[in-house]
Automatic annotation (TrEMBL):
Major role in the synthesis of nucleoside triphosphates other than ATP. The ATP gamma phosphate is transferred to the NDP beta phosphate via a ping-pong mechanism, using a phosphorylated active-site intermediate. Keywords: ATP-binding, Cytoplasm, Kinase, Magnesium, Metal-binding, Nucleotide metabolism, Nucleotide-binding, Phosphoprotein, Transferase. The active site is at H116 (pros-phosphohistidine intermediate). It holds the Pfam family NDK. This is Nucleoside diphosphate kinase. CDD domains: NDPk_I. It catalyses: a 2'-deoxyribonucleoside 5'-diphosphate + ATP = a 2'-deoxyribonucleoside 5'-triphosphate + ADP; a ribonucleoside 5'-diphosphate + ATP = a ribonucleoside 5'-triphosphate + ADP. Belongs to the NDK family. The lineage of its organism: Bacteria, Bacillati, Actinomycetota, Actinomycetes, Streptosporangiales. It comes from Actinocorallia aurantiaca. ATP binds at K10, F58, R86, T92, R103, N113.
Amino acid sequence: MSERTLILVKPDGVRKGVVGEVVARIERKGLKLVALELRTLGREVAEEHYAEHRERPFFGELVEFITGGPLVALVAEGPHAIKAFRGLAGATNPVEAGPGTIRGDFALEIGENIVHGSDSPESAAREIKIFFPELGA
Ligand code: DAT
Ligand code: MG
């Protein structure tokens, strides 16, 4: 069953120059790019995107970080796209992410872990609507 997922190469990934590497891994896995855009998030969009974390102690830092520079937002599509990309990304904490995963290969700190990927069909639909409303449901 084909599905879509919202992926971000966060500002640390853009700063480190690994956008091409991340996109290459997505394509090599067999996922298809449906939308892709470089943009800098305003506070409101960032807070909406991370709404589920609003009460967490790191929320302020998270919003500062994600708005702190340009990021690449993209939508990828394919069978099990959500789980497939979470596999490519690796564990949230980069020191626990295995070698060969994006976070395992390119990051060391949980607050700067290079990529975001939707974690369920519901969050994918919600997040895609935030970044690419023109894609519809
Ligand atoms: P994921 O990005 O793997 O879905 P998440 O949704 O739990 O992870 O958290 C969103 C982001 O918030 C995560 O990519 C990095 C940041 N984060 C999570 N836990 C954190 C913590 N304990 N301290 C600092 N930042 C954290
Ligand atoms: Mg998450």
